[in-house]
């Protein structure tokens, strides 16, 4: 099973073909089990926090039952009154689930393990692929950027993310199996694009976990750029210990270690992808 990722939605009114909603990377499940994720959550949380720092109003939707984006932003999944599970299965308004986090302009729609049941419970549900899109439509204009952090499998939760997004952002790890599973993700994006959501497109590929000490990382980066050209962001996210430590403190890297290489890289990425925030009167 491939592994899909983090999607972004921007309000229709402000949507440009090169900006929008997005979903991240793909990887072979077998490798996931051995190696952990590809960097979807890390990218959603830290790109989101850096864009919020620039002045964008950012909503991160945690769509992974593991709730890593939620805990990584300091939200305790056990104390939630409502979560994305209630939004998707019990028609709780998105606004009721959204929490402010300790970063200005940054908001979170959290998830906890309840969401694991959604994958099954959604199967017989009415309009099961469109639940997230419908929930987002009520809050869409309240945010400049909506990021959806996807679970590691391509089930109904991910299909909901793809149906709700207009852009897909894929992090690619600068390692030997970098492109493994990517074909499957692209086919799924294509399927959703043709059947559920004509706006959807792969908008950005971000090279992550780049280790400048290895030739392999540079070779992979070159190969990905040859293959995907301008879709690949100029900004490359380095592999750093600080980036992996920040979530256990419930903080994005921009707060946890504000001058670190990881923080600088995610700020560059936010400037590259999101640009300046809209001016507000
Ligand atoms: N640039 C990086 N440098 C170091 N560790 C990273 C980096 N990006 C992610 N990680 C770590 O790798 C693991 C998987 O990342 P994560 O973002 O959770 O992946 P996914 O959401 O795709 O499963 C986590 O432990 C995370 O802290
Ligand atoms: Mg994750």
List its traits.
281 residues; alpha/beta; 8-stranded mixed beta sheet; 13 helices; 8 strands; 40% helix; globular; binds adenosine-5'-diphosphate; binds magnesium ion
In short:
The protein has 281 residues and is of the alpha/beta class. It is 40% helix and 16% strand.
Write the layout of secondary structure elements.
Layout: E1 6-9, H1 29-35, H2 40-54, E2 58-62, H3 68-72, H4 84-90, H5 94-97, E3 99-100, E4 106-109, H6 114-121, H7 131-137, E5 145-149, H8 156-164, E6 167-173, H9 182-195, E7 201-210, H10 215-228, E8 232-238, H11 241-245, H12 253-256, H13 261-274
Parallel strand pairs: 2-4, 2-5, 6-7, 7-8
Antiparallel strand pairs: 1-5, 1-6, 3-4
Bound molecules: adenosine-5'-diphosphate and magnesium ion (MG).
What does this structure look like?
By secondary structure, the chain is of the alpha/beta class. It is built from 13 helices and eight strands. The chain has helices spanning 29-35, 40-54, 68-72, 84-90, 94-97, 114-121, 131-137, 156-164, 182-195, 215-228, 241-245, 253-256, 261-274; strands at 6-9, 58-62, 99-100, 106-109, 145-149, 167-173, 201-210, 232-238. An eight-stranded mixed beta sheet has the order 3-4-2-5-1-6-7-8, sandwiched between helices. Strand 6, helix 9 and strand 7 (201-210) form a beta-alpha-beta unit. Helix 4 runs parallel beside helix 6 (114-121). The longest helix is centred in the N-terminal third of the chain and has 15 residues, at 40-54. The protein starts with 5 loop residues before the first strand and ends in a 7-residue tail after the last helix. Adenosine-5'-diphosphate binds next to helix 2, strand 7 and helix 11.
